[in-house]
Automatic annotation (TrEMBL):
An example Gene Ontology biological process: response to antibiotic
Positions of transmembrane segments: 46-64, 71-88, 138-160, 263-279
GO cellular component: plasma membrane
Name the record gives this protein: Beta-lactamase regulator AmpE
Gene that encodes the chain: ampE
Source organism: Thalassotalea euphylliae
Keywords, in A-Z order: Membrane, Transmembrane, Transmembrane helix
InterPro entries: AmpE, Beta-lactamase_Reg
Length: 280
């Protein structure tokens, strides 16, 4: 069932352009309900982020647990996975970046990049490296959580990412909310610790193994290192990048291709594990 859901979701995610199929659409409605109920004033402290995260996850789990029909369960799980996959804004930013680059508008390219890292509350690693990280966040990690924990797992991870991004933006305006930001960041660090090392192992397999392997081994045992730094360090070694200073598209395009190969690799791994009966 999980393999079929993954196959359908990966095939359908990019072709479904309606806002209904975008996670940000559902997230926006969820936060609107929270705001209308004045939830932030009713619940304070560390309990607030835990409840905001737990409610949709528990509801998803309970809803699917009551679905006894196998076909209906597959349809609902697949629909949830499609919503959790991908990020239209990131994909559009990449396209706009390339269009601006081909026109020679380098200042516009930089503006697209700065807007992306601002929206996603990410450090400045470079455009190509940022895209590799977001590919992991919106595809590979969601796949892993879905396979291990089902649709509720995919909702958990994607919701945690969105809450963390939103809270970082809010903290810039309201520094007193930094404690809540810290909660999301710590939860996300834990949630990413193992998946990011598995994903970076995949980058090593589909890329330059001999160059990336020492970096992967070194990063694996750095338990406190930021997950995005782990992935980016391996990605930089896994791809042979001949950078032309006049071509700002070279590195992003090569790293995006590397990331796409990694998605296909992990889909193949999941397929083999499913067909061999290791996972269901």
């Amino acid at each position: 069932m999980g393999l079929i859901s993954l196959l359908i979701s990966l095939a359908a995610e990019k072709s479904l352009s309606s806002p209904f199929w975008q996670f940000n659409y559902a997230f926006g409605h969820y936060m609107s309900v929270v705001k209308k109920q004045d939830f932030h004033n009713k619940v304070t402290g560390v309990l607030l982020p835990i409840i905001l995260l737990a409610v949709p996850v528990v509801l998803t789990y309970l809803a699917l647990s009551f679905v006894e029909d196998g076909l209906l369960h597959l349809v609902v799980s697949t629909a949830i996975l499609i919503i959790c996959f991908g990020c239209v804004k990131t994909r559009d930013t990449y396209k706009c970046f390339l269009q601006s680059a081909f026109k020679g508008e380098l200042t516009t390219c930089d503006l697209h990049y700065q807007q992306l890292i601002s929206d996603k509350s990410l450090p400045d690693h470079g455009f190509g490296q940022t895209l590799v990280w977001l590919n992991y966040r919106y595809y590979i990690s969601v796949m892993m959580y879905f396979v291990v924990f089902g649709a509720a797992g995919a909702v958990f991870y994607r919701l945690l990412c969105s809450l963390d991004e939103q809270q970082h933006r809010l903290t810039e305006q309201e520094p007193e909310s930094a404690a809540i930001t810290d909660v999301y960041s710590k939860l996300l660090f834990i949630a990413d610790w193992l998946p990011v090392r598995l994903a970076s192992f995949g980058l090593m397999i589909v890329g330059h193994f001999s160059k990336a392997f020492p970096v992967w081994i070194d990063n694996f045992f750095q338990f406190s290192k930021a997950p995005q730094c782990v992935l980016i360090d391996v990605a930089q070694q896994a791809e042979d990048i001949m950078v032309d200073d006049k071509d700002c598209t070279a590195e992003p395009c090569l790293l995006v291709k590397l990331a796409k190969r990694n998605v296909l690799l992990w889909f193949a791994v999941i397929a083999i594990l499913t067909l061999s009966g290791v996972i269901s």
